[in-house]
Amino acid sequence: MEPVFNERPYIDNGDGTITDKQTGLMWEMQTSTCSGEVTCIYSQYAWSSSGTLADGTLFTSFIAGLNGGVYYNPSTGQDVYTAAGAGTCVANHCDWRIPTVAELQTIIEMTASGCGAGGLCIDPTFGPTSPTQQSAYWSSSSSAGTNSAGVGGAWFVYFLNGTVQVTNKTFATYARAVRSGR
């Protein structure tokens, strides 16, 4: 399938990915069919199960699912293979990761139709995006410190209005993955 070019700086690669021509980042497209795909727009993930480490379902299910059953464990400094074993990587790329908050902000489109008025602030080239009022998407960026329960925070971006906030790492919300592209 030929890539589809539009007036925006994004290329639909025709394989379930979008490339940002300005940053060179490749983003996974999500699906609304949701019959077990890791790219389902309705799936939510916790950043951390321990409250501080990157050991939640965001990494052990979402990123591992995109990368054929492998995710990077920062506490051990090595790749971890899930119990399901090696599988197929999304779009034949096995280096998907959670974007930094700065990277995630690059795909916020404040001029998108309906942005800030109930519509989502993301270019429609990206395909389906969680339509709920929550519409918060995790970044890989942690915030400093922990709360009184010893739980750390991480930054997320609301695709509903483009705002950036910190929340508890054990909170479950949405995710969109990225890779360096080219």
Summed up:
The protein is mostly beta strands. The protein has two helices and twelve strands, in the order βββββαββαβββββ.
| Tally of individual domains | 1
**Number of H/I helices:** 2
Subunit arrangement of the protein: single chain
How is the main sheet built? 5 strands, antiparallel
Q: Mind telling me the C-alpha Rg?
A: 16 Å
Net shape: globular
Number of strands: 12
Structure description:
Helices cover 8% and strands 27% of the residues. The protein is mainly beta and 182 residues long. It contains 2 helices and 12 strands. The strands form 4 sheets. It has a 5-stranded antiparallel sheet with strand order 1-2-3-4-12, with no helix packed on it. A 3-stranded antiparallel sheet has the order 8-9-10. It has a two-stranded antiparallel ribbon with strand order 5-11. β8 and β9 form a beta hairpin. The mean pLDDT is 84. The chain has one domain (46-179).
Please write out the topology:
Blueprint: E1 4-5, E2 10-12, E3 17-20, E4 26-28, E5 45-46, H1 57-66, E6 70-73, E7 78-81, H2 101-105, E8 136-146, E9 152-158, E10 164-168, E11 172-173, E12 178-179
Antiparallel strand pairs: 1-2, 2-3, 3-4, 4-12, 5-11, 6-7, 8-9, 9-10
